[in-house]
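Posting here for the record, re: 2-aminohexanedioic acid.
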Amino acid sequence: MTLVNETSALLSKLGVSAAALSAGDLAVSSPVTGETIATVAQVSAATAAKAIDEAHAAFLEWRKVPAPRRGELVRLLGEELRAHKDELGRLVSIEVGKIPSEGLGEVQEMIDICDFAVGLSRQLYGLTIATERPGHRMMETWHPLGVVGVISAFNFPVAVWSWNAALALVCGDSVVWKPSEKTPLTALACEAIFARAVKRFGDDAPHGLLKVLVGGADVGEALVDHPRVPLVSATGSTRMGRAVGPRLAGRFARAVLELGGNNAGIVCPSADLDMALRAIAFGAMGTAGQRCTTMRRLFVHESVYDQIVPRLKKAYESVTVGNPLEGRALIGPLIDKAAFDGMQKALEEAKAAGGSVTGGVRVDAGHAEAFYVRPAIVEMPSQAGPVMEETFAPILYVMKYSDFDAVIAEHNAVGAGLSSSIFTRDIQEAERFLSAEGSDCGIANVNIGTSGAEIGGAFGGEKETGGGRESGSDAWKAYMRRATNTVNYSKALPLAQGVSFDID
Ligand code: UN1
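Prediction output follows.
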């Protein structure tokens, strides 16, 4: 079966009509072969504004539905995702080039966040607070916020939406989603899956609870500027975040930003080297380096450098790169030519800065417009040049260290502070890495790599990563507004000493 036919068959099983695949002028190509697999319709900024108004009307109804009942809708969404996991996972593989286990893994993250949010729908707790006033009670109440705008990136085309949507829905919000222009098909599939859940749920889910807006930058801007969108959760590049953040701040709207990651690992003298090697290989090469949590920098203690780096190079040279839809490739393609060019540019800069490059060359998979590349490992004399920047491709910069304090400082010296890990069996090193003077990232791990964060923890980072938090822990609070309520059940109204009003 051709890729076009398979895509169409998958989408029809998922509930998207074949007509949608040739409905407009946005060409969707699969990075697996580089061929165009659909041309879908895009909405205008005016249509986007209308959709936001409809989502706002839906919010006004949805906020009145009790939270545990809202949780039931998300439970049904989780069921539908379970039932369609294979198809949606395969579609992710076709649209972004993930290997099958990663395409399915992404859908599993969606299922997991649904389960989490269902539980959360009965746990949107506020505190009861001791008041200084006699005969009073003080408490906090969490209320639905409004329309939540979601802007997602190509690399997690469905999971990021679900981390936001599952929470937003149990919190009583409606959702307007602008997926990456590179991945509209998986977004249309999610819309259809959600529609099935709504159908099973019943009439108390208002029309317009989820709007998917396929479109360009003007649609993103419509979402960012619309006064009825109190929160925009945007995942993507730091450059995108720099454009979105100030515009939201300008109208006092909230932002959940998940931006770049220039994540590092540190291998200490006492590390279990086999374990470290496996974790580094997975974290640095997995998803062809196109995760925000990809390991991009590695600091290795000089005493173990020669035991680990040659083995790592061997793994880089032998890993199978190829078509993720057939065979046993562990690394699929880059998303497009721009990604390949960006990688080559970074490697040239690294060489100019004294780096020694292994790998990084294009792999011929028989498709002129598909960009497969052997992952690159670059031994650097110091942390300089392209090492300071996130390049969204499989490049691991390796540096030697000798002093623990100095390596922590180097680790923290880059702009993005998303994920980090240390490999050590020395408890003092491990604890110092996790302490206030250790890693400055939103995710800090011991003896496990930088990627593969579970949905139960709050996902996000610091500094140029945007400071946002999605998914687990208390991330839900960003999707609600808090009121502090004070109730006076006494017969008196205490005012400041010496203050009284003549009201007779
Ligand atoms: C991302 O790359 O945008 O921790 C998210 C991970 C995944 C999420 C990555 N659970 O690698």
